[in-house]
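Teaching assistant's notes for section 4

Start the section by putting this record on the projector. Ask students to predict, before seeing the second block, whether Solute carrier organic anion transporter family member will look compact or extended. Collect guesses on the board.
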Amino acid sequence: PSSQEGPLAFSFFAKGFSGSYMKSMTSQIERRFEISSSVVGLIDGSFEIGNLMVMVLVSYLGPRIHRPKIIAVGCLIMSLGVFLSVMPQFLMGRYNYERVTVTVDNSSTSVSACSPASSVVLSELCSQKCKCLWSAGCEKTTNSYLWLFVLMGNLLRGIGEAPVMPLGFSYIDDFSKEENSAFYIGLVRSSGMFGPTLGFLLGSFCASLWVDIGVVDVDTISINPKDTRWVGAWWLGLLICGAVNFIASLPFWFLPHSLTKEGENENLKISHLSVQGEGCKIDSPVQPQMKFSEAAKDFLPALKKMFGNTVFLVYIFLTILQYNSLVGMITFETKFMEQQFNVSVAKAIFLIGVILLPITILGMFLGGFLIKKFKLHITEMAKFACITFIVAYLLNLLYFTCGCEVLQVAGLTAPYSGLKHLSSPKTNFMASCNADCGCKMDQWDPVCGDNGITYMTACFAGCKSSTGTGKNMVFHNCSCVEGQVHGLGNSSAFLGQCQRESCTKAFPYFLALQTACAFIFALGGTPTYMIMFRSVSPDLKSFAVGIETLVGRVLGGLPAPIYFGALIDETCLKWGTKNCGGTGSCRVYDTNAFRNVYLGLIAGLRTGCCLLYIVLCVLIMKRFKPDGKEITNIKNTERSTRKQPDTANKKEILPGAITSEESEETCM
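Reveal the predicted structure now:
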């Protein structure tokens, strides 16, 4: 099967590559379209919606259709979806970040941020060349809804990805030797693991480039990648992802409907099965209606049998909580690192791609290797999975110690030290030192004072003069800074928010802790997955995988980014302003509240997981003997345990794989 292994491995690489790249770009998309975290969560969840729309149909039709061609169409749809997501970049025009400082090129003219007369000029939120229209309906211009292109693109990507795994795995399994099938599938999955790593690395590179690279002179940009207004070249990587998905589709057009069974001449039985396979191929066009009615008739009894299985039912609840914690954590991980530890999004993405993903892959493989090496039975696997999860969960609680102080913003998170606040609630950002400056409340172009406190704009710092241009502009004679450094006179402030050095120092400890947690969680991942296969009867294994995927995605993958995003939005202290009015994306979070919400949600979901793991262990130990064989009074799998006490333990069936028994049934 080497002829189909290569293309399938590359298609796995392509879907992982574009999927992880999209995950890494959530912050950039949020800022570019000036949307909230909950809307970003909705965009992220649209992939799951697309996937679920066709997953059941594709899995059911599996052997009855030309699988390679359906995979080829899937890869093309993924490519189309990615290219559709790029469209807004070419429809929106240049990105004009929120700023109030007007820079005058080739001139040393001093700009006074604090003076009622100049406040009108300084309140420009667009660059000098951009004509900005302030009107009532401005917020509802076409630009406001261009993020729907990204949502629809993600939806298409979900539809396109659906056939790749189930049809690819069953195609390999049908035409390879039984003993080689797991090896080939493992090979394809492991090559696919390189996709997410490279996707995150590409994401890191693109996030460090300015969004309008090639059109705008980067030297004129007055912000750096650590700024919450910075938008990277999110669209550039999508063009590469689209091209990779398109290339992945090409080889599948040339693969046959079916292949000769591997090694059919070596063994009469294998030869006989392959002849049956050919018969199946000839008959399939005549029989689909009958097959469908039979399947429909058996569907409800099979469903009842599955959910009557207590072990499987507990496993499903466990899966739902696992999906919620994992998807929520991954979606907002880069934002969490940026806000808590003062690292740029590009650096956070890079570290996830280089450290966390490979260590997770290693954990998954090691988990599978330990099962094989020590021939673990279902009872031992349950104990192993439970212990690793509880250890990782306890380590996970240490995240709360890796805190960081809130960014000190005058009038927002810190007082104008020693100066009396003005009483009006509308002017809580004002103090006596900037009361007559005519500052606008809805602006965000931070400056960092000599005292280590950030001011929302140079106007709020009460700065009277400036030197330099662009990102090198420095403001002088800032009355609010002066008040805090005991009237030393020439108190200055420079562009950008103050750096929180202590946070950056705490980051390596957080990263080491996260790496350890990821490894231990992944170690127990494979044994947990195998519990599902060993706890249901052989004829229901494929159905079990379908239910697990469906339930996990509908109740986990889809809602988690939305409610995580909505709760994170609640911790925002200062929202940005769109070019033409209206609320943009968040500029400053209450980092303590953010940490408690983000880590608290994950810890809460995982507490539920811990309890369900313990319940699962108890149920499995009651239902199975210590050697892994099932106690025969259980109706669900009584027959299969009597017939195949050994093969049930030896053979591991992967998602989408078709067993020899199923192959025979299909052809009858």
